[in-house]
Amino acid sequence: MASNLLHILPPQRLLRPLAVPERLLLGPGPSNVPPRILAASSRQLLGHMHPEVLQVMDDIKVGIQYAFQTQNKLTLAISGTGHCAMEAAFLNLVEHGDTVLVAVNGIWGQRAADIARRLGASVHELLKPPGEYFTPWDIEEGLIQHKPSVLFITHGESSTGVLQPLEGLGKLCHRHGCLLLVDAVASLGGAPIFMDQQEIDILYSGSQKVLNAPPGSAPISFSEQAREKILRRKTNPPSFYLDMRWLANYWGCDGEARRYHHTAPISSFFSLREGLAMLAELVSGSRQAKARLPTITTVRVPEGYDWKEITAFLMDNHAIEISGGLGPSLGKVLRIGLMGCNSTSRNVDRVLHALRDALRCCRRSRL
Ligand code: PMP
């Protein structure tokens, strides 16, 4: 470009080197990326339709089937973050005028209801105060009253730290002619989930939490019933990018020759493959009895303290990220994430030490 034609000058800040400090990421995600996964994402690119990349996609597929405990054919990773998988689930399943029931006990139910409404669904919300979970009786009441075709529920409510028990919900939904859609972005790999045994129809997660990969790809799987509902649609899904019929072909799930749909985020897929491989190498954990989300610990903000001062103190003085509340838990809790490689007793000691320091040093607020 002739430089005398440039009215916008090269930005000075881009002429400085990239600055990325070392930090312990103990918020609700992303979590730190271990060297093996970082190394995978910095490998040289290949073409997105090269056989080696298709092989990596096949590895990801079986990795998700293992992580989700499912044999579903329609299993793949969305090129996008958790929200993208959430939208992919809704916009493939729901048509204008369909009835959707959303279990809302934190921000993720609120967002799911918003997404379903944008698609023209008739949305009903089952409400619980933040910190509580839904019993099968709560759910059954909603199913009887509203007769939805899809029920949305969050397994790991990262805004409140609640782990939703899923036992029996799939069966219940199926008895009432409804599909069960579960958000496991914040829980997958940290809290047990059994997609086939628990009769979950659509399950999705994210790459940047327990899987310890960078954000940008989101595992998702559809049961046979959910797949059939998609194939029976009267109208096209209102997104080309997230149309599951295209994606099923691109991921080799429909038995036909793979066609170009979009350019896969290849480096994200390399790192997701390694995150899933590391999960496959772990011995699976034991069942959690209490409704407490093991991946994100919520702690009530101590009386008289300002949560923002505490999180800022940890960041500035200890290079540790923890987070405040979100949505209905805003201002009430601190959220400490221990996910994948970050889930070590050393990190627990580090964050406890830093919190003790914060309680000593942060001035009490003007309450
Ligand atoms: N669902 C839950 C339970 C989450 O915790 C998050 C991320 N905090 C999301 C969905 C959205 O994921 P993303 O930020 O990757 O789009």
UniProtKB/TrEMBL annotation:
Keywords: Aminotransferase, Pyridoxal phosphate, Transferase. Residues 42-282 form the Aminotransferase class V domain. Substrate binds at residue 335. One of its GO terms (molecular function) is alanine-glyoxylate transaminase activity. It catalyses: glyoxylate + L-alanine = glycine + pyruvate; L-serine + pyruvate = 3-hydroxypyruvate + L-alanine. GO terms for cellular component: peroxisome. Its EC number is 2.6.1.44, 2.6.1.51. The keyword Signal does not apply. Belongs to the class-V pyridoxal-phosphate-dependent aminotransferase family. Homodimer. This is Alanine--glyoxylate aminotransferase. It comes from Melopsittacus undulatus.
